[in-house]
Amino acid sequence: MKKINREIKNGREITNVRIRVLKRCEIPKAAAVYALAWRKANVGEEWTGATAEKFFEYFLRRQRDLFFVAVYKGKVVGGIVGDIVPWWDGPHLSDTEIFVHPKFQRRGIARLLLLAILKKAIRKYQITTLEGFADVKSRFPLEWYNRIGWERTRWVHIAGDPKKMLEKLQ
């Protein structure tokens, strides 16, 4: 995969960010950034480095070639991962997770990460749809998602406590 480079402003200095496939040894670093990004987003998901590592291992077992990281000065500052799912209208890039360290947000890194995964998924898997979740209460990044072409669907994300469901079903 060709490396994508982008210069961003960080205070006064200009820095170089590289987008590339995640190396297994970087899982703890990427997991720490993921957990921090979710804590700062304050949307009710309490990720830790350990739980994020398990999550990332899960994705690596399923779709290793679609896990990209943004690297700045040798450090992981963001990432994106998704999963190819066969669907009635062709392959979907699903369960897409994008995360950027809070200090590096709104500097074009998420755009570069999305470009990398979309180019690869379109070229290699001929995806027809990109799917993801976003918090409806957060203007950022929802407005950005809308600007770049994501649309709300008629589907509603549902979740529940399986023990309570079991009780009600019996």
For this structure, what is the CATH homologous superfamily?
Answer: Gcn5-related N-acetyltransferase (GNAT)
Could you describe the largest sheet, including whether it forms a barrel? 6 strands, mixed
Q: Share of helix among residues?
A: 25-40%
How much of the sequence is in beta strands? 25-35%
What's the gyration radius in Å? 17 Å
Number of helices: 5
The gross shape turns out to be: globular
Please count the beta strands (DSSP E, at least 2 residues each): 6
From the 3D structure, determine the CATH topology.
Aminopeptidase
Structural class: alpha+beta
Distance between the termini: 52 Å
Give the name of the CATH architecture: 3-Layer(aba) Sandwich
User: What is the domain total for the residues?
Assistant: 1
Q: Helix and strand succession?
A: EEHHEEEHEHH
Extract low-pLDDT stretches: none
Average of the residue pLDDT scores: 88
CATH class: Alpha Beta
Describe this structure in words.
This protein is an alpha+beta fold and 170 residues long. The chain has one domain (4-169): Gcn5-related N-acetyltransferase (GNAT) (Aminopeptidase), CATH 3.40.630. The protein is 38% helix and 27% strand. The chain has 5 helices and 6 strands; from the N terminus they run E-E-H-H-E-E-E-H-E-H-H. It has helices spanning 27-41, 49-63, 109-125, 139-147, 162-169, and strands at residues 4-10, 13-21, 67-72, 75-85, 92-100, 129-132. It has a 6-stranded mixed sheet, with helices on both faces. A hairpin with a 6-residue loop joins strand 4 (75-85) and strand 5 (92-100). Helix 1 crosses helix 2 (49-63). The protein is globular and about 55 Å long. 25% of the residues are buried. The mean pLDDT is 88. GO terms for molecular function: acyltransferase activity, transferring groups other than amino-acyl groups. Pfam families: Acetyltransf_1. InterPro entries: Acyl_CoA_acyltransferase, GNAT_dom. This is N-acetyltransferase domain-containing protein. Residues 17-170 form the N-acetyltransferase domain.
